[in-house]
Amino acid sequence: MFQVYRAALYTEKPIQQYSELVGGNESKRIHLVMLREVNANELGGMFLRGIQENMDKAASVRMMPAMLRMAALFNEYKKLDPGESVTLDWVPGKGTVVSVRGVPAGESIPEAQFYHALAGIWLGATPADWKLRDAMLGVKATTDTANRN
């Protein structure tokens, strides 16, 4: 497996579990920096698949309008080069703000559940990468997947 990006989680207070992230309405940020050239549409597609892998079918259906808005944001970009970034901010009172190359892309997505679903890609029950999840949460990595979450 090759690395596509580096990711970091920023919160107002330290958290060690995904449930702590979804429990409050504080500002949150997930910052991704590309390590190689990435097709922006493919990255958007990976985000959508990651969201769907971390929620049940009914929740996925409820989130579909927000997921389609997110996909539309990435349709505006052809590619992201190494060193370029995608930032996913939760701004209380505004919603999810997606920035590409440091510039907000499109309108904010107001549903808090969408940001939580988006964060679930890296921090949820089925994260994209367990080691990355543990690093983002600042917890000791473990090889025992039965004791996760």
From TrEMBL:
Pfam families xref list = Chalcone_3
Domain Chalcone isomerase as annotated: residue spans: 1-138
| Gene3D superfamilies in alphabetical order | 3.50.70.10
UniProt GO MF annotations: intramolecular lyase activity
Q: What is this protein called?
A: Chalcone isomerase domain-containing protein
Protein species of origin: bioreactor metagenome
